[in-house]
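Q: How would the structure tokens look for this protein?
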Amino acid sequence: MIHKPVPPNTETPTIIFTAVSWSAYQRELYDIRYRVFVEEQQIPEELEQDEHDPVSQHILARTAGGLAVGTGRLLPDGHIGRVAVLADWRRYGIGRQLMEHLIELARQQGHKTVHLNAQIAAQAFYTRLGFHSEGEPFLEAGIPHQSMYRNL
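A: Here is the predicted structure in token form.
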């Protein structure tokens, strides 16, 4: 049984961001991604997990009560992906903070640039975080995307 966390209505929730491994937190990470990408966006389930998960660093966002509400990953080559926040928890700055943590991980690893493939609908979000578009838009899992980068 999955319990749907409900954010507080009157104040910004306390969110704790933790760097975690896929092997130890796969269930929580995948639950968020499944709900956002497969259920919400109708991406085929078989495309959701890939060979990059076990070798990537993941950030898990949880409420002070321990409910997992967001995630993102950093691949060894500096590519950011699978950034997802549960629908009821959007507009609290969780996505921005996830990205800040992923960018900091990339800096700590010595990357000079980070890359991502932004869904066109989220492109403005990444632009506000200092990312720049490169190349032409393309389809990934049937959804229009734009390659983006940010120098660190």
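The chain has a mean pLDDT of 92.

The longest strand covers residues 143-151.

Upvote if useful.
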